[in-house]
Design a protein that fits this description.
single chain; 576 residues; mainly beta; Immunoglobulin-like; Jelly Rolls; seven-stranded mixed sheet; 7% helix; binds 2-acetamido-2-deoxy-beta-D-glucopyranose; transmembrane; copper; signal; DBH-like monooxygenase protein 2 homolog; oxidoreductase
């Protein structure tokens, strides 16, 4: 009796069903076989995980720079014939992880019931072992794997990844008994080419009164070819429906206000409880453009598809209307904006000056940002969205130090950020072109680049995008540009650095576009300094002989990159 009481005090987390100390929960796989629950007292202390996997074999869980094995911080354990086993590992590649010299995780309990292995373990949020990840307030890639026996060996397809913001988690609802609107294509033929964008312009709803969309679920008929989907609202002058290839110069190319999005790696997106995307009512006649990017690298013939988005809605209106603001860089003059080849880190910047909003709208309220979808093409390695007030950086609305094209989804900010009238946003993208031999231009194609942040906020205002581009007619930039891209000699490092600096220093031409497709220009935008990303100081741990303030350094060392097709097409010709 006494010993049982003692056990329960030592292992409080293994007692009972739902545990108030582990309020957060995510399934890491689609089949709901892999579940992780977690909780923590304060962001400087310990974090406790409870891993539940439907297997009687070994289970593994960890953090990864980009969703893969290389560079991952992993724990593996289970209950075998000789008892409980559990260890801290790290992986250097797609091979058996190595045991970590410093064991930073403490097993609190392990159990196997009804074919499910349940392990509860704890670690400090901040790590001072350079083989472990520090958990920050940014989203982190969780990975899992498991076996069918207690012999730790190759997991085959029993693996996966999910990006979760552990410290700033946004709870998700479950889909039960809700009505939905369907934005789908109907058995379209996917051509035999690598990249194809299909657009369907349609009415979405016949809802006579205003409703709120509360959840967006992808309906992917063919996961092997569907790469991204965006649903845009159309300006009122677009009145004609169509169902054909995108960006052929149709008027509906002007439908540009993002309403909902899904990209490869993403799942169901649930909006926070108090907000919804408005639909129906006075916007009943509005047309919407569904854009689907098909990626058919083998050029398969005879493929058809009926994918789309399910938009779950409610008539019980929520407090606020949600809008999506597109910020970043868009090329909108005749000069090309190019990134030189063979550069390890090349930075580009787009600025959004919200003081222009009032010129377009008359008045603009404070905008509360709660989620962001960050986007580049294949050369993108890192994206940051700096938030400036009175010329000073006050935070980040998005910060992905290990951008992976294969895993894109709306990242909940966790704590809502307020953009005040006059605040500036800078979207910084870092590219690597070391494997390229020719220049990469900002544009639409597979090998072109983009740098965009889709910010989800409330209350919705009638602004669809706030983008910029360096003034490429600036004489210094023109000279440097022709020296680098038209010269016969290979440009020096210094030349490239100077070109990068000029792109940032020359006046930035900004364009703010309204929902009705009116554009306001501001020609003297400046890019402010964003500095280094915030890091939490590493606490001194007497057991740690590896204590060197490198707590978050491993987050910045992405090396693996899985190329795929391009994702997001963006056409200017139509709107400007
Ligand atoms: C934090 O976790 C470590 C390792 O599990 C443990 O030794 C320490 O007592 C914990 N601290 C608190 C405050 O729970
Ligand atoms: C596992 O849990 C079951 C039921 O909760 C319990 O009967 C059993 O003793 C536990 N086993 C271990 C090894 O903790
Ligand atoms: C996983 O195992 C638990 C416990 O046995 C069970 O309740 C649950 O239904 C299983 N889940 C799936 C998807 O099989
Ligand atoms: C889809 O289209 C293909 C050819 O385009 C046709 O063979 C097939 O029957 C269609 N499927 C449905 C369900 O309509
Ligand atoms: C936007 O443009 C339309 C014509 O396309 C015009 O009727 C409307 O007044 C403009 N709105 C603003 C806010 O300028
Ligand atoms: C934003 O616009 C205001 C004028 O409306 C200007 O004073 C300010 O310098 C601009 N900021 C940037 C970063 O361009």
């Amino acid at each position: 009796m006494l010993s049982l009481l003692f056990l329960m005090m030592v292992l409080p987390l293994s007692v009972g069903g739902s545990d108030p100390t582990l309020p957060f929960m995510e399934y890491l796989d689609q089949n709901h076989l892999v579940c992780v629950k977690w909780g923590f007292d304060n962001p400087q202390g310990n974090i406790t995980f409870k891993l539940l996997i439907n297997t009687t074999g070994w289970v593994g869980f960890g953090f990864s720079p980009n969703g893969g094995m290389a560079g991952a911080d992993i724990v593996m354990g289970g209950l075998g014939s000789s008892g409980i086993y559990f260890k801290d590992y790290y992986a250097t590649g797609d091979s058996m992880p190595l045991e970590d010299e410093q064991q930073s995780y403490t097993l609190l309990s392990a159990n196997e019931t009804d074919g499910q292995t349940i392990m509860t373990f704890q670690r400090t949020i901040q790590s001072c072992d350079d083989k472990d990840f520090s958990i920050t307030t940014q989203a982190i890639k969780l990975i899992y794997a498991y076996g069918t026996t207690d012999q730790i060996n190759y997991h085959a397809s029993r693996r996966g990844t999910k990006e979760v913001n552990l410290l700033n988690y946004m709870p998700r609802a479950t889909i039960t008994g809700l009505n939905y609107l369907s934005a789908r294509v109907n058995n379209i033929s996917v051509p035999e080419k690598h990249t194809y964008y299909h657009c369907k312009v349609m009415k979405l709803s016949t809802l006579k009164t205003k409703h709120h969309i509360t959840m967006v679920e992808p309906h992917i008929e063919h996961p092997d070819i569907v790469h991204h989907m965006l649903l845009y609202g159309c300006p009122s002058f677009v009145t004609q429906e169509y169902d054909t290839q995108c960006y052929k110069g149709d008027i509906s190319d002007a439908c540009f206000e993002v309403v909902a999005s899904w990209a490869v790696g993403g799942g169901v997106y649930v909006l926070p409880e108090t907000v919804g995307i408005p639909v129906g009512g006075e916007t009943n006649e509005r047309l919407y453009r569904l854009e689907i990017h098909y990626n058919n690298p083998n050029g398969d013939k005879g493929r058809t598809d009926s994918s789309g988005l399910k938009l779950y809605y409610t008539g019980k209106l929520r407090q606020e209307d949600v809008g999506t603001l597109t910020a970043g860089i868009l090329h909108f003059d005749q000069m090309e904006y190019k990134i030189p080849p063979k550069v390890d880190q090349f930075h580009t910047y787009g600025v959004c000056n919200t003081s222009i909003f009032s010129q377009t709208l008359g008045h603009s309220p404070d905008l509360h940002v709660f989620g962001v979808l960050l986007h580049t093409h294949l050369a993108g390695r890192k994206i940051r969205v700096g938030h400036f007030r009175n010329g000073k950086l006050i935070g980040f609305l998005g910060l992905v130090e290990n951008y992976n094209f294969e895993f894109q989804e709306v990242i909940p900010l966790g704590s809502v950020a307020t953009i005040k009238q006059g605040d500036e946003l800078v979207v910084e993208c870092t590219y690597s072109t070391t494997t390229r031999t020719t220049a990469t231009k900002m544009g639409l194609g597979t090998t072109d680049e983009m740098c965009l942040a889709f910010l989800l906020y409330y209350p919705a205002i009638k602004i669809s995008s706030c983008i910029s581009h360096p003034n490429s007619y600036h004489p210094l930039l023109q000279t440097m540009s022709s020296q680098i891209f038209e010269g016969t000699a290979t440009p020096s490092r210094d030349d490239i650095a100077e070109y990068e600096r000029l792109l940032k220093k020359v006046p930035q031409i900004q364009v703010v576009s309204s929902s009705e497709n009116n554009h306001t220009f501001y020609e003297n935008g400046i890019i402010r300094e964003m500095g280094n990303s915030p890091t939490v100081a590493c606490q001194t741990n007497p057991n740690n002989n590896n204590n060197n303030n490198s707590g978050s350094s491993r987050l910045g060392t992405s090396s693996i990159f899985i190329p795929a097709g391009i994702i997001l097409l963006f056409l200017l010709v139509g709107i400007l």
